[in-house]
Amino acid sequence: MSEQHIVKSFDRDLEAIQAQIMKMGGLVEEAILKASQSLEERDEELAEKVRNGDQAIDDLELLINENTAQLIALRAPAASDLRVILSVMKLAGNLERIGDYAKNMAKRTGVLVQMSPITGSHAALRRMAREVQLMLKDALDAYTQRDAELAMDVIHRDEDVDQMYNALFREFLTFMMEDPRNITACMHLHFIATNTERMGDHVTSIAEQVVYLVKGELPEAGRPKGDQTSIDPKLGKV
User: For the whole model, what pTM was predicted?
Assistant: First the structure.
């Protein structure tokens, strides 16, 4: 087999894997939006669709890992190509975790619809989830375009998600202190907010992989962590 044919075969296989990543990313974006929509609209049927749809995301991660392992074994990629393959595997892992968090959000919907709504919280959580989804879209665009500048923008925007989380945390504390009957609902909502904040962390990891892919190294300085709920002396430890 000629060297040119081997190169073309490798490129074709890698393109197929990257197409799978884009498909997986699209499913995860959809899961984020539908999970937050089901929460705000108290739509148990839509939440069920999100929970059932997570299997397709898991299956794609498994397929991507199998295909990348096979590509490494059969094609013996050069260092630059190996960096792409390893980045793909890390992207798939982060996407799978984001999908899990979206599924967990949907799981809470069935519980929360049985309780009195906490004023404004569902809409605020949906705005937070929407920001994470837009970050993910841009991170995936940065990956396909090999755009390190766009990836760095995504990394910095995670601070906005952290600030949204901090504001929600304080609101939930206020609601619980004002009326103990709100405690259970607020605990579920806080769990959702925490998962959404962690989605943002995984999107940030994807963006960092894009920077690594383009520049050959991760961003120099660790991003500042905007979640202050565990260290704010006014709030206490959580």
Answer: 0.87
